């Protein structure tokens, strides 16, 4: 997950659930449940590995090279490459 995406996700989750806690939810124990859920969601997003914004998920040159080989070899290379 890119850093920009992490910041946006955490901001949106925190903003929307904070608005819900203060203005929408009336029951106090539900407010606490939502608050701790928000913390858990934010912690999970932070735990996801941050990738560089210029890094390609599927490098195009590898995909082009695989088109020339048999489909069985393609499957082996795609699933076994790291």
Reconstruct the topology from this structure.
Elements: H1 3-24, H2 28-47, H3 60-66, H4 71-80
Helix pairs in contact: 1-2
Q: Can you tell me about this structure?
A:
It is a single chain. With 82 residues, this protein is mainly α. It has two domains: 1-51; 58-82, no CATH class. Helices cover 72% and strands 0% of the residues. It contains four helices and no strands. The chain has helices spanning 3-24, 28-47, 60-66, 71-80. The longest helix is centred in the first third of the chain and has 22 residues, at 3-24. The relative contact order is 0.13.
Characteristic key phrases:
82 residues, mainly alpha, 2 domains, 72% helix
Concise synopsis of the structure shown:
This protein has helices at 3-24, 28-47, 60-66, 71-80.
């Amino acid at each position: 997950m890119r850093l920009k995406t992490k910041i946006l996700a955490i901001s949106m989750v925190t903003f929307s659930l904070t608005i819900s806690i203060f203005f929408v939810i009336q029951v106090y124990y539900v407010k606490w449940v939502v608050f701790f859920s928000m913390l858990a969601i934010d912690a999970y997003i932070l735990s996801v590995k941050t990738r560089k914004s210029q890094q390609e998920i599927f490098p195009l040159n590898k995909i082009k090279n695989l088109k020339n080989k048999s489909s069985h070899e393609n499957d082996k290379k795609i699933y076994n490459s790291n």
